[in-house]
Write a structure and sequence with these properties.
Layout lengths: L1 E3 L14 H8 L23 H16 L6 H14 L11 E5 L3 H14 L7 E4 L9 H8 L4 E5 L1
Parallel strand pairs: 1-3, 2-4, 3-4
Length: about 160
């Protein structure tokens, strides 16, 4: 299981990526991908009772993964890899990574663990953030993650 922890010191400011990175970010696409259960009903977490949230996150993660990576997450990683291989300006090179956003450390863990369990070829490439009061990887370890292609990170 891989996770990372960061400490943000003072002064805090805005990180400004270099121009090439800004151009690549400008080409990014954000998607709303509603997920449905086996009865084709939308899966909703907001407003659900706390005891049900873990199973809902697991169900959404399974839906996003599909059958061992054939779902939305695998499609996105394949598209990013294709863009990187065919990009003459190198905007998309080394960008075949996904970042999934959730609302809590627990939710990040639930989703990451479910993705690992139903996508065996990616289980060592899925990371999530944890609170800083447990033993974790360091910021340098996370820099290493940025160079790992086809990885999935979950964040708050």
């Amino acid at each position: 299981m891989r996770f990372a922890c960061f400490h943000v010191g003072n002064p805090q400011g805005v990180l400004m990526p270099e121009q090439g990175a800004r151009e690549a970010i400008a080409q990014s696409h954000f998607k709303f991908l509603p997920q449905f259960n086996q009865k084709t009903q939308p899966l909703r977490i907001s407003g659900s009772p706390e005891p049900q949230k873990m199973s809902l996150f697991q169900e959404i993660a399974r839906s996003l993964v599909g059958s061992n990576g054939t779902g939305h997450l695998g499609q996105e990683l394949r598209e990013l890899k294709h863009l990187g291989e065919n990009d003459l300006d190198n905007h998309w090179r080394d960008r075949d990574r996904l970042l999934l956003l959730v609302n809590s450390y627990d939710q990040a863990g639930w989703a990451a663990n479910e993705i690992r369990s139903c996508w065996s070829s990616m289980q060592d490439l899925v990371y999530h953030l944890v609170p800083d009061n447990i033993e974790t990887d360091t910021e340098n370890d996370f820099d290493e993650l940025a160079s790992i292609p086809n990885s999935i990170s979950l964040s708050l």
